[in-house]
Design brief:
Layout: H1 43-64, H2 70-83, H3 97-108, H4 113-120, H5 124-127, H6 132-139, H7 141-150, H8 161-178, H9 181-195, H10 203-223, H11 227-241, H12 243-255, H13 257-277, E1 283-286, H14 291-301, E2 313-318, H15 321-334, E3 343-344, E4 357-362, E5 368-375, H16 376-384, H17 387-392, H18 398-404, H19 406-417, H20 421-431, E6 436-440, E7 446-450, H21 455-462, H22 464-468, E8 470-475, E9 478-480, E10 492-496, H23 513-546, H24 557-563, H25 568-577, H26 582-590, H27 601-605, E11 607-609, E12 617-620, E13 627-629, E14 641-645, E15 651-655, H28 659-664, E16 671-672, E17 674-676, E18 684-693, H29 698-709, E19 712-721, E20 724-733, H30 736-747, E21 752-757
Parallel strand pairs: 2-5, 13-15
Antiparallel strand pairs: 1-2, 3-4, 4-5, 6-7, 8-9, 8-10, 11-12, 12-17, 14-15, 14-16, 18-20, 18-21, 19-20
Helix pairs in contact: 1-2, 1-3, 2-4, 3-4, 3-9, 4-7, 4-9, 6-7, 7-9, 8-19, 8-20, 9-11, 10-11, 11-12, 13-15, 23-25, 23-26, 29-30
Amino acid sequence: MPSAPSSSASAAANPDSPRRDATLPPAVTLTEGEAPASTEMKAPEIERSLDRAKENLIAYLLERHPQADTALLRKAIDFTILAHKDQFRHSGMPYAEHPFEVAKLLADFNMDTVTIVAGLLHDVAEDTLHGVTEIRAEFGEEVAFLVEAVTKISLLQSKSREEQQAETFRKMLVSMAKDLRVILIKFADRLHNMRTLSYHKKEEKRRDIAAETLEVYAPLAHRFGLGQIKWELEDLSFKYLNPDAYKTLVRKVVEKRQEREEYVRSILGPAKEALAKAGIDAKVFGRPKHLYSIWLKMQSRNCQFEDIYDLHALRIIVKTVGDCYAVLGSMHALWPPLQSRFKDYIATPKSNLYQSLHTTVIGPQGKAIEVQIRTEDMDRVAEHGIAAHWGYKEGTSSREIGKENAWLSQLMEMQQELTDSGDFMEFFRRDLAPGEVFVHTPKGDNIQLQQGATALDFAFALHSELGLKCVGARVDGVMVPLHRVLQTGERVEILKSDSQHPSQDWLSIVVSTKAKHHIRRWLRNEESAHSIQLGREMLEREFRHARVPADQQSDLAPFTAKFGVQSWEALWEKLGHGEFSLGAVSALVQERSPIRPKQSLLSRVGIRRASKPADSVLVSGMGNMLIRFATCCHPVPGDRILGYVTRGRGVSVHRANCPEGLLLTRDKERIVPVQWSSEAGQTFDAHLEVTARDRSGLLRDLTDVFSKVGVNVQRASIVTLRDQVRNRFRVQVRDLEQLEDAMERMRKVQSVTAVSRRQSGN
């Protein structure tokens, strides 16, 4: 996107540069306003500017990579200037300065010459008349592949912006699997664009770019261990998405700067002395927190800026893993630790290969101090992720590095299964969500899961077939249900049964996209089989009612001409799924009937009893249709109801005032008249919510009401918040009168403040 170039890329990650001992993250700017856009430059001035920029770039690249192919770099720079001639950014500066800055960032990432050249050319194929074929001829296959991989997919008129975005990310993902340098070029491009986003004239566009950066690129940087890039992208996005909160936080950080610096100095001395006394060679320094991280913690903990635990933070770098644990002991001996705030990411690395010991101790003045302890190699990976491998693992290929990233392997597997663009983007965003837990199989294998993952998620993580047959689990030897949320360090054993099958409820139990995908696919396949069976029964019934001879029932041609189906299975499935109306199919069947005069479907069928449950509902005009009671509103006899012909599941019966049912009434062709039968002896599910002030004996008094009116309680759950309690009951009642009698009696129970019928039983 057009925006002004940064004056320097020195804030980018550079493992060899001195570490900043700052109190502000790189993205913080203390000026209230934005820099004004430059006026458009004249031709001689442009030429002089580009000449200076070119020589500065060459010097910058060779300083970091003395062995780089200088001739190839000069050729790429000249090609970039030529290709982007007469193009300008919103600042008024020549467009070529943007790829120059991208090249500097890639050099800071310790990337090779080929990647830097691809960074220089990354916008050529997308924004100029020079295509990938020309790039391939001039710079070779490797450079051409990288340039093509980072080029957006052209917008097709038939595709929405969301579909285009999904296909672009899918293309990038496939290319990443072949060569991880693709994503590093994208990060360098996005980082410089975000640094210069203030020059974009449209606020809406700035917010859109910032939102995409925060939603996709920052989490993606985290997944690849690019800590510095992640933090800067988050802070820059925060600046444009919530400018008021950003400025307020900047002001508070600046106001507290001297106080924090003095406190950090007061703890650095004792920490260094303790390590020297223990004979541990270590580097110890204060670590600034980035703004977005502070703001998120303030929101999640509902606390003030001054209350954040790790505003005071130390990082300790040592030579060996053994030294890490020795440092941990020294810090705990120096200051008392908070036991709940210790994490060992060395024994259990994160999915992005991050390793470190994290502990929080109570330092002088009772202030909490977060301490990170790691080796030099761990620190390089923590700060620079996959980019660290190129500079410090001689001969390591991007494909080999990709194999180390388990998340990328799973991502590739899922993108092959998700053919729909919308499904893919939903999966992609969900899978980028932060937070993870680590649990163990009975054999001791370590399995990484998303935060909030359940026993059912764990089963699907091991194998999709195991997930589909899962009936429960043992956690540390104790039996637990499918919905049990797992915690780091637990040992989990999955229990399965060949008779077990997924249900729609499972989708609310799992959090992982992989599990949701396999459950939905099984349900779709099951629904398809059910639709075929239902459609076949419906068509055979129509043939019987119309008394069509058996030898005339095998001719598919009239149905193909009318509906375009090429097989009986396709006809049955679409009929059972509700894509074809029974009336339209019946009309074709009637044309073959020897009965004269032909009967209309409505007059022939009239009102017939539904097949279940126990003839409790009469369905008009639909023959012996299967029925089910909607679980969103749970109608009971006495409720006003409506019927909706579903796709593959017969007629769904809703309460007339059900919000979901009211939405369905927009499709009037599927609405059918239904009424309660006069059959007695049936019971129906209903869901109640009772809110009250908590007191002793409350639950006993509520259940006494159910007992007195003859209502059976199937399930109860209680949630207490301070002095308020919310009781939820699933009960069985004969009809609406009995239900309302129970509700009225409950309203008179001491301390009860509200009794309502829940719309959903979930």
